[in-house]
Amino acid sequence: MYMKKIINTILKAGALMFLLSSCDKNKNLENTGVTAVTNFFTPENNRFVKLVPTTSASVEFEWEQAKAEDGGVILYEVAFVAEGGDFTKPVYKLLSDNNGLFNKATVSHKQLNSIANLAGIESLEKGKLQWTVFSSRGINTVQSAIVHTIELERPAGFSEIPTDLYLKGTATEAGDDIANAIAFKQTANGVFELYTSLKEGKYQLTDKKTGTPVVYYIDGPVIRVDGETTVTGATKVYRIVLDFNNIAVSFTEVKKVELWFAPDNAIKFALPYAGNSVFKAENVKVDFKQEGWGRDERYKFKFTVNKDGQDASEWMGSVNNDNSRPDANTPASFWYLIPINNNDQWNYCFKFKTEVDGAPSDFSVIMSAAGPYTHKIDVR
């Protein structure tokens, strides 16, 4: 009997503690009220901003503090919609500075460019966003009655620049299967280059080979989203350069690649395009030139290109102004190709290894995205 009384007492005490706890929780929930923000400071209504997302420029959104019923911490979010949009379905929301604690939000031009894109404002166009502020204390969130407008002018280029780029389609060497899409070489942030051939058909660009890629296409001198480009006429080899920072497109036809032999001050032979970004001459030979001091073996490569209807010569040579003859211990970097402006007879030439002299060989100029532009010579 005594034990039963003790158990009943414990149960009653527990029930009382539960009731008191529930009351405290309800009291806490009742005290989480928060006021709406009643004044916006910056940017002023109808502010115009020309976006320059390549800089560190930003816009500061600042407002008067709200008040919490329990005097606790308030969190803020800034919401954006297209002009006339619904703030229950904003195109973008972001926390204020210091993870939502400050009554201001510093928004970079790059981020505003992305928000403008989400709101349907196209590159190089002006458009308006509307913004407001939500204040909250836990589960209670209140929207400000104030709505301001900000007008933005977007730059050329995309708000989100791809980190990888691929080419696919019936007009390409790889065909229309995205799994086989050809990779571009990234030469700078947002800038991609590819040596490849195009034939009659269609092609697209994608930012990845799996999942749901973003699809781009070439529309004259600019890059656009969601479409395809049609190729007509004869198959040609191109150097394609795409700059997503300003949506610019450059197509340069590579008409021929030739080996230039310095001792003769003349072209030795052409390297026809073999596909897969490689130019190759098979079973050809070079006889070194006998000089009084020995046999001369210097060479580099001449590219004949056509851009905008005009033929021009471009030279690819060594990073070094002069070289020693390579051997089995020479590093792979010796054969790397770089553009050279100096096309005189001797400077920035490579030297053949001894075994090439008079021997039938295969010569390859490799302009692949997989690694540095380079070349190799395989003696048969």
Largest sheet composition:
9 strands, antiparallel
As for the number of domains, it is 3
Query: Could you say which overall geometry the principal axes of the C-alpha atoms support?
Result: elongated
Structural class: mainly beta
Residue windows where pLDDT falls under 50 for at least 5 positions: 1-7, 9-29
Radius of gyration: 33 Å
- How much strand? 35-45%
Tell me roughly what share of residues is in helical segments: 10-25%
Note the total helix count: 3
The N- to C-terminal Cα distance equals 106 Å
The mean pLDDT is 90
Count of individual beta strands: 30
Condensed summary:
By secondary structure, the chain is mainly beta. It contains three helices and 30 strands.
What key phrases describe this protein's structure?
6-stranded mixed beta sheet, disordered N terminus, Immunoglobulin-like, 30 strands, 380 residues
